[in-house]
Amino acid sequence: MAVLNKIRQRSLFLILIIAMALFSFVLADLFKNSDALTSKSQNIVATINGKDITREDFMQKVEAAQRQAGPNATNTQVMNRVWEQEVRKAIMQTQYDELGISVEKDQMRDLLKTSLATSPEFLNEAGLFDENKLNEYIANLKETSQQAYASWINYEKSVAASGLQQNYFNLVKAGLTGTLAEGELEHKLEGNKVDIKFVQVAYAAIKDSLVEVSKSDISNYINKNKKEYEVDASRDIKFIQFNEVASVEDENAIKAELNVYLNGRFVDETGRKDTIVAFSKVKDNEDYINTNSDTKFDNRFVFKSGLPTAVADTIYNLEVGGVYGPYKDNGHFKISKVVAVKQIPDSVKVRHILIPFIGSQSAAPEVTQTEAEAKVTADSLLTVIKSNRSKFPELVKEFSSDKGSVEKEGRYDWHPYNTMVSEFNDFEFEGKTGDLGVVKTVFGFHIIEIEGQTDKIKAVQVGTITRKIEPSEATTAKVFRDASNFEIKAREGDFEALAKEGSYTVRPVNGIKVLDESIPGVGNQRPIVRWAFEEDLEIGAVKRFNIPNGYVIAQLVAQHEEGLMSVEDATAKVLPLVRKEKKAKMIRDRVSAKTLEDLATAENTTVRSASAINMKSPTISGAGREPLVVGTAFGLNEGETSKLIDGENGVYMIQVTKVTPAVELDSYQAAANRVEQQKINVVNSKLYNALKEAAEIEDNRAKTQVQ
Predict the structure, then answer these.
(1) How far is CA 692 from the centre of its chain?
(2) What 8-state DSSP symbol labels residue 505?
(3) Taking every annotated instance into account, which residue ranges of this chain make up the domain PpiC (predicted)?
(4) Which of 104, 156, 202, 612 lies at 20 to 30 Å from 667 by C-alpha?
(5) What is the mean pLDDT of residues 348-373?
(6) Do the beta carbons of residue 311 and residue 327 sit within 8 Å?
């Protein structure tokens, strides 16, 4: 009983303990859920109209697109391309779902038929699309190659997506019309004319220096026109560049090294003398060059036009065995030797039939001939052509896999030396007109006929020993020290002053966006962009970045958050607009005239005339485009004078001298049809952009580190 009494006495205390325990449990669960939400948000690249795009799915598509695009496309370029594709797909899918439209089996067959209508593998003997051949092709893919079948499924999806989009666009177009009322309005906008007299008091008549524009004026203008001045988050930086460039000493050392091959003597570090055969006395030029040059021997003959411009005359006129150099060309020092000379045409005309084989570069998937079988085919065709050359065009159409020349009867019209692959080139330029032969290249076997050659001229075979002009280790070490020292000093001192002291050029870059990748003057530099957007980074922060052949020392200058443009950033754009408004007010305040003549006298100008003004093209002869002034004119009666009008180029007073209404038509259907067509014409270009602007798009690429 005593225990129960004690429990009762402490009931309030126990309730508080239990409540705190429950609260702790709820808080723990809340934090747990918060972590889950954070984890989720880091895995969601975007949410578009309520649909999430996961990081994993997005990156898989980026990787696939990167493989397809090849090495020339940067990761950011590919990522942005995939982003736009995914945004478009999600936005359009929202529309399809709301309308309940889809591509069904029958339409899919029609779409494939249209898409594949010119593919030879799906055509019958009459040249018409054969659905049975398509079914057979798909069945064969499914049985023989899952990878190829998966590619086909992706192709079908892309065809279906295009068809679905076209269905949607057609639905929108079908709902557009031009009414008779719109047709009548269109006709009147074009046909109603007015003649006016006007006085223009040009804004340019008031000097800009007489108009005071304050920061608050610019701020007020921005706030009145918020939509025009909304900006994404951005950063401003400045940087200097330390380039690893060969010094004069480095260049002299490279030339000295080449002179060893030119003169034929070499002294090693121990002082022992070794003899190297001079380039001019070498017999095996290819081996000598390949052993001692940064670039391999090129056995092609070239005309004078194919030699470096600065030294073309000198090298072209050398005797066989003659050597010239060292000379500088395209980032290298070189010594060149004329290895051989011959006379060859500078252009030829040929026709050919290409027979591919399994493994050749031109071989399509359906090619089944082995190399030996293809050679037999080529030799057989050559025999037929030799007996009757008129069969050449017919055999081209039947056998040649070179689609680019089939329509021209296998012909490649006049083309210069070294246009074709080497084996093809050698046959056509070293043979003579009328020659027929079989030549093997990486593309297959070619049956070639030389149809014409220009007169032969001198060509030279030039062997060249090259050395790339690049900085020595001592030079690169010095550049690294200079960059590091500047970085250390800039963190504590004045960036601009230090740059001036070291005679370095400071380059500003403003308005960098979070997903940008390129820095002007430096190129693709995502690391610099990512650094500039680090959360805790303070203005004035300095960092060194490695770039190809050197370093960049960058300093963060400004951080601009998402929202309205700052007064400083908007000044260049807004200042002329505010100044124009103030000039208009100054003109209004000083004008008391009520007639055109009085206004012209007071402002020391003249009364001018303009005729046949219409609303469709609101331009006043001698004054420029003035929509508001023209609109006012159409609101006045004949003989009526306007009040002052603030136009684009000045303040105006106008008087309507003549009103000419448009000719009335019995029917405005033709004009209504034009209106309808105008509406339809803009669907393809403007519909998606309108949907995108109205969509709810949450872009988390920067937050999810997909950048």
Answers:
(1) 21
(2) P
(3) 345-452
(4) 612
(5) 88
(6) yes
